[in-house]
Amino acid sequence: MKNLSLFAVLAAVSLTFYGCTNSSDPGSTGGAGGESTVSADAPKVAYVTNGIASFWDIAEKGAMDGGKEFDANVIVKMPANGVEDQKRMCQDLLAQGIKGIAISPIDPDNQGDLLDEIASHTNLITQDSDAPDSKRLCYIGMDNYTAGRMCGKLVKEAMPEGGSVIILVGRLAQENAKLRRQGTIDEILDRSEDRTRYDDPNDGEIKGEKYTILDTRTDGFDFGKCKDNAQDAIAKYEDLGCMVGLFAYNPPLILEAVREAGKVGKIKIVSFDEDERSLQAIQDGEMYGTTVQDPYNYGHKSVEILAALARGDRSIIPEGGVINIPARNIRKDNVGEFWAELKRLTAKEAPVEEETAEEPAASDEEAETAEGEPAAEEAPAEAGEAATE
Q1: Among 21, 208, 305, 352, which is most exposed with the fewest C-beta within 10 angstroms?
Q2: Total count of domains within the chain
Q3: What is the pTM of this model?
Q4: Residue 222: pLDDT band with limits 50, 70, 90
Q5: Domain span at residue 195?
Q6: For residue 287, is it within any domain?
Q7: Are residues 238 and 362 in the same domain?
Q8: Residue-averaged pLDDT of the chain
Q9: Model confidence over 86-97: pLDDT tens digits?
Q10: What is the CATH number of the domain that holds 136?
Q11: Distance of CA 82 to the CA centre of its chain
């Protein structure tokens, strides 16, 4: 194994680091996350997110439950400070002799060296956001372009007469964010499917027959900046019709800005992911709907794959190297059922509410996305900032 001297140094630094840092503090260089030990001789695997958000709390629960089910000791790392933080965490895990890493790459186009380093020393898989040009063994997550089109359908349902739209997202370097945004735009503008299309956010407004995409604003996972972006858009565009948040933390902050402006109902809000504040707002009629992933199963399936690989079982890798966990659209008529199932998975008390109407039949796009996957009640659905998603 190469770079042993580097690993020895990193290991020594790691021991010193953990002796003087509170890893539960999201603002520390240790970041958020946790560790679960099932037995001393079980393989140790890691689940590395692309940030800190409610979405990743759900994924962490899935990973920890996966550790118990598949007899693996699990470490969850949540980088608070972007690419360099994620790199440091991964190199520290390698120094500990980790048996596998499931990572959501923050900037796969510029993290090739890191991903190659991981793959050369342990089992590498991606989850939530892919790095298809890397040496990863498989990707676990949804089809982000298709999910973006599902989100675009919610925008058209919320604003059927047409209007103007603003998109808010954490980062656009992540592959999942690029595909999600493009799918949303393509669906809103009734374009044909084209996964190679990319509308540069610096090119200004994108006009269609009924809808106009005014702008896409990023915040770098800075929650204060996200709200500032929303407030500025509300002030700048008097006729703003809909705001779309593509990472889990975006929609609740958008809602705060819309409430403070006194425009609840006038400005429609469409969400990604299953932040509890978004689900409550959908129940209350303040948001129209959300396209959810399945972060619990991202974490659970990642640990299942890594545990098998650590024991030498490569048959666990599917042909094509992709495990599709489909997205779902959640509206007021099915939010209660979905939320209750989410609470059950994350071992939280289910909300007390009135009975909701039966979920409508899936659209053609939703049915196509779920083809060949478990039924929704067997594998309930994801929330990114994103982080992410």
Answers
A1: 352
A2: 2
A3: 0.77
A4: very high
A5: 144-292+328-369
A6: yes
A7: yes
A8: 85
A9: 999 999 999 999
A10: 3.40.50.2300
A11: 15
